[in-house]
Amino acid sequence: MVKLRHSRLQAKKWSTLTLVLSMLFMLTIVLLMLLAMGIFYIPIGDDDSPPNDLTSFRRRAFEKRSSIAEEKGEQWTEIVAWEPRAFVYHNFLSKAECEYLIDLAKPYMVKSTVVDSKTGQSKDSRVRTSSGTFLKRGQDRIIRGIEKRIADFTFIPMGEYLKF
């Protein structure tokens, strides 16, 4: 009869060592994934706030300035609420861009209407005092620049926001 050289005790030690090493390997993978996604960060500089701090989330928009766009100052995003999602994009448009949009839309402005609850048709209301218009998507270079900036700030590709 042949006697085995390895006992059961050595097999248990080997499986425990394998278990510990595999757990360390999985922990390393999870940590690397958290670092890659930006959920976990390693502070490197003297910056007071981490890059993903939700209470003081700031994002600089890098873009080419068009000839009509004047210096807008620092552009940053303020989080108003997460449910429902609401943000304020500070210094999003320059004064010249605002004036351009107003001048472009002014001739086409129409009084806003309300829906008649009985017929389902639009009707005028003396309570509603607003007016508005729609601009064509990609109408000119300035509009395309603003649309690109919207896509950059909201992380929604151009054209996709029409689905919402």
The separation of the N and C termini measures 77 Å
Radius of gyration: 29 Å
The count of DSSP E runs of length 2 or more, i.e. the number of strands, is: 6
Strand % is 5-15%
Structural class: alpha+beta
Task: Describe what this molecule looks like in 3D.
With 164 residues, the protein is α+β, with helices and mostly antiparallel strands. The protein has a domain at 68-154. It is 34% helix and 12% strand. It is built from three helices and six strands. It has helices at 8-37, 95-105, 141-154; strands at residues 76-81, 86-90, 110-111, 114-115, 122-123, 131-132. The strands form three sheets. It has a two-stranded antiparallel sheet with strand order 1-2. A hairpin with a 4-residue loop joins strand 1 (76-81) and strand 2 (86-90). The protein is elongated and about 100 Å long. It starts with 7 loop residues before the first helix and ends in a 10-residue tail after the last helix. Residues 53-70 have low confidence and may be disordered. It is found in: Endoplasmic reticulum membrane. GO terms for molecular function: metal ion binding. Keywords: Iron, Membrane, Metal-binding, Transmembrane, Transmembrane helix. It comes from Citrus sinensis. The chain crosses the membrane at residues 20-42.
